[in-house]
Design a protein that fits this description.
By secondary structure, the chain is an alpha/beta fold. It contains 11 helices and 10 strands.
């Protein structure tokens, strides 16, 4: 597993990290979760990404991870880089979401209890809160670091301007920002509109989530919607996302992947990793076989300029929607 340095820090992360957003709640058998986590670790995936409300239900991904951590991984705690987040809805009432000091610090304490660990390696503000002073939100992250409950501070779903301000505030507090986690894929290009530039300028790193667009950038949906798939079971990926325009683009991309000896998913991961400002991509996995296939994208030969041109052409296939 190749590793990349996170910004100007001393931390290196695996090119491909394991996210527990969809497949580690109470709807997935624990023995499958255990097999995926073990296989990922054996293949060099030291970074595991969570959030307080991952499930379903909320909190169950952290709780299930905590159970499996106690069973298998506690002796290897110093070889793991654990992340969690807070900021999206977690509990009822005025303090159960967003970016207040109250929500972030209470959420972190809850996450540590569910996971059964003394600290996480990075704690993220999960989304920018327009109604809370950024100084308060970043101050909460600084407090969490000083309390020893997290080693590093991160932000997620913050735009370029908010990223720049967060970096300045945290540097003044003496707790540098490590990472900004954002959606980035062949079908989601928003980080190219300034975020990657500010990440480079501030000597931080982008960590990309949904690099496979929640499964759209795989061959899983090219010929239909399989029973039990995310599109068939999750509101995060509705069936109406599978349009003819999208399928036209996906089939053209699959042809480029085939020419490289890759799957469509592997090509999509290689494309995000082409940019050195991205230190890791976060993938989900519902089985060991799916995990292994996607991990094989790590360390793949870099994309040739002709292949990048072919990818751009595939995204602009006549009749297809232009990339955002």
């Amino acid at each position: 597993m190749p590793y990349r340095r996170a910004g100007a820090s001393g931390i290196s992360l695996p090119e491909v990290s394991l996210g527990l957003w969809h497949n580690f709640g109470d709807t997935q058998p624990l023995d499958v979760q255990r097999a995926v986590l073990r296989r990922a670790f054996d293949r060099g995936v030291t970074h595991v990404d969570l959030a307080n409300n991952y499930g379903p239900p909320y909190g169950s991904a952290e709780r299930n991870f905590g159970y499996l951590f106690a069973q298998d991984f506690r002796p290897y705690r110093d070889e793991l880089f654990l992340a969690t987040k807070a900021g999206y809805h977690m509990w009822a009432g005025p303090y159960g979401e967003w970016g207040s000091r109250k929500n972030l610090l209470a959420s972190l304490d809850q996450s540590l209890r569910r996971m059964g660990v003394d600290y996480v390696d990075v704690f993220y503000s999960h989304r920018y809160d327009p109604d809370t002073p950024l100084e308060e939100t970043m101050g909460a992250l600084d407090t969490a670091v000083r309390q020893g409950k997290t080693l590093y501070a991160g932000i997620s779903n913050y735009g370029p301007e908010e990223h720049d301000r967060a970096v300045r505030i945290l540097r003044e507090l003496g707790t540098p920002l490590l990472l900004n986690q954002a959606p980035y894929s062949l079908l989601e290009r928003a980080p190219e509109q300034g975020l990657l530039d500010v990440v480079d300028r501030t000597r931080t790193s982008l960590i990309a989530y949904s690099p496979l667009a929640q499964g759209l950038l795989t061959d899983r949906y090219l010929d239909g919607v399989p029973a039990g798939s995310r599109m068939a079971t999750s509101h995060f990926l509705p069936p109406q996302a599978r349009t003819e325009h999208l399928l036209t683009r996906l089939r053209a991309l699959a042809a480029v992947a085939d020419g490289r000896g890759q799957t469509l998913a592997q090509l999509a991961l290689s494309w995000v990793l082409r940019d050195p400002r991205v230190c890791s991509v976060i993938i989900g996995a519902s089985s060991v076989a799916q995990l292994d296939q996607n991990l094989d994208a790590a360390g793949a030969p870099p994309l040739h300029p002709d292949e990048l041109t072919a990818i751009d052409a595939a995204l602009r296939t006549p009749g297809a929607v232009e990339p955002d």
